[in-house]
Amino acid sequence: MSETTLRGSGMTSQRTRKRMVERLEARGIQDPRVLALMARMPRHLFIEEALASRAYEDLALPIGFGQTISQPYMVARMTEALLQNGIPERVLEVGTGSGYQTALLAALVPQVYSVERIAPLLEQARQLLGRMRIRNVDFHHSDGHWGWPAHAPYDAILVAAAPNEVPESLLAQVKIDGPVVIPVGSGLQQRLMRYTRTAVGIQESVLEMVHFVPLKEGVG
Ligand code: SAH
């Protein structure tokens, strides 16, 4: 991928990204690592060209198969919540989608494992991250309700689609003191949650009300 493509021009330029990050700050995102990284990450490459001019608006946008690339604010909020108690070494992401969140995680932590149930989306993300020379991500086509037991336990887990209740198998695959950041609930009544597994049980905190696509059963 050429420097020009990565840098973008006009509506996909560095300046447009900087304005997006200023809006994230205005909405309360504080982590300088997250803000600096989002100012660099070319989000327009993760959506189809026809929508590229809207890539730095704070919107979820369609990526095909009835799915969306998450809204920048949500990506920032979840990433911030994941890093709150230090940089995790190995992170499980459920819901690869476009791979945008995956690429951000890969720049922040040593190793990312990413699970997606829709094979063509997974393949597109795998190829794009390959072209971006991001090498510390392992992809898996599977129903993320079950996590990815082969590489468990993880230091942190991030889920980009909402189940009605938090899957027990995800809570079981995070290390002690590790966070699981996940939207939980149905329809318009979802809460972004941060569960932490402790020696004596699961601690939970509600981050805010959110609206994500549902975490679906089985593979697509
Ligand atoms: N972070 C991604 C979010 C995509 S939307 C991005 O910004 O592009 C959520 C994704 O979760 C969709 O791609 C959807 O197919 C996927 N998904 C839904 N249910 C799933 C499940 N049970 N297992 C794995 N992925 C799932």
The average pLDDT value, as a whole number, equals 94
Q: How many β-strands, per DSSP?
A: 9
CATH topology: Rossmann fold
The CATH class is Alpha Beta
H/E series, N to C?
A: HHHEEHEHEHEEHEEE
Q: What's the gyration radius in Å?
A: 16 Å
Structure characterization notes:
By secondary structure, the chain is an alpha/beta fold. The chain has one domain: 3-Layer(aba) Sandwich (Rossmann fold), CATH 3.40.50. 30% of the residues lie in helices and 24% in strands. It has 7 helices and 9 strands; from the N terminus they run αααββαβαβαββαβββ. α2 runs antiparallel to α3. The site of S-adenosyl-L-homocysteine has 24 residues, from β2, α5 and β4. S-adenosyl-L-homocysteine binds next to β2, α5 and β4.
Task: List strands and helices in order, with pairings.
Blueprint: H1 3-7, H2 14-26, H3 32-40, E1 61-64, E2 67-69, H4 72-83, E3 90-94, H5 100-108, E4 111-116, H6 119-131, E5 137-141, E6 156-159, H7 168-172, E7 179-184, E8 190-198, E9 201-210
Helix pairs in contact: 2-3
The structure holds S-adenosyl-L-homocysteine.
S-adenosyl-L-homocysteine binds at residues 63, 67-70, 94-95, 97-98, 100-101, 115-118, 121, 143-145, 160-161, 213, 215-216.
